[in-house]
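Order emerges. As here.
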Amino acid sequence: MSQREAPRPTIPVGDLLSDPLADLGLRLLAGSSGLGRPIGAAVLQKPGLALAGHPEMLRTGTVQVLGRSEVAYLEQIPAEQRRSVLGRVTGVPIACFILTHGASPHPDLVGAAETSGIPLLVTARSTARLIDVLGRHLEERLAPVVTIHGTLIDIYGVGVLILGESGVGKSESALELILRGHRLVSDDVVTLRRVGAVLNGMGPDVSRYHMELRGLGIINIKDLYGVAAVRERKDVELVVRLDRWQDGKEYDRLGLDERTHRILGVDLPMLEMPVGPGRNLSVLLEVAARHHLLKRKGYHPARELAGRIQEALEKRR
């Protein structure tokens, strides 16, 4: 399989002031020189322990959320201790501070942020709301990404990633599946993004909904068959590798040995499907998707049959 993993993404703090997060109403209070600082972690931190004297708990490239308790703590400690704590905290390469509930920052915090070039932002939203909205935004923007040579298609609601060497019949199988009412996500190149423990796949913007067919050229599935034949993205649940038939090679005939295929640290169930004359791949792929749905509900026919055979053997004994 040909795949190319992109470098670990980061986003500049200045992007938090853009339209996608308009609901949070973030405003910059200090540290404008650090708006280019990279955010590299989707998890937001509350720096309570760091302010109490443990700056080693801070993670590089994180957003630090200052709620009511952190603001109150900074207000009540002695001035010398406050400046010492803020000096140690701003010495860590964090991304930025965000005040919630529209809190007014202590002048020492404003000064420390300005001096260190760490942006200090404020929102009128609650801490829980900020963590929910911004956390989901960062999780999507900072998700690991990999580009794979293959075809992704939605079959009965199951995202099936079809792999195999060039010319083995991935595109032709996908086209026949589209004619049978299923939906294309991407052909030839699939971009996979890991969000949590889920792999979400889509096609490149420049070639979305296009398909290459040898002897025919490039076609646009959306233009030919309408919007019902395509979808922009789909979570991947099953991997099917098409393999040219090889005499003498042993293929799984019972389905008891469940194989997996790892992408971006996620193990996906995988089937290896031999390609040969007389095999209707589109029908086999439909069966594979239906079979996956049954197993997801807890029904495994191969194991049931094996259990019945074992039971019959025990009775004979």
Notes: Residues 281-296 form the longest helix (16 residues). The mean pLDDT is 88.
